[in-house]
């Protein structure tokens, strides 16, 4: 499920070629996940690394992560 979530998020990424010749990418649904690099492929890889760290930290801190195309990786605790 986690791999599917990462794939869905990466498909939602937007990329932009900046005036300085570098590439900028972000995933709008995942606030704070962005990357900037000199090549498109490096930018994509940096974006995925950023996403993975964001997911791990978010889950560890108990944040509610966005549900992407019905993929919910949030930890749901049962009511006592």
Automatic annotation (TrEMBL):
InterPro entries: TTHA0281-like, TTHA1013/TTHA0281-like
Protein name: Type II toxin-antitoxin system HicB family antitoxin
Organism of provenance: Okeanomitos corallinicola TIOX110
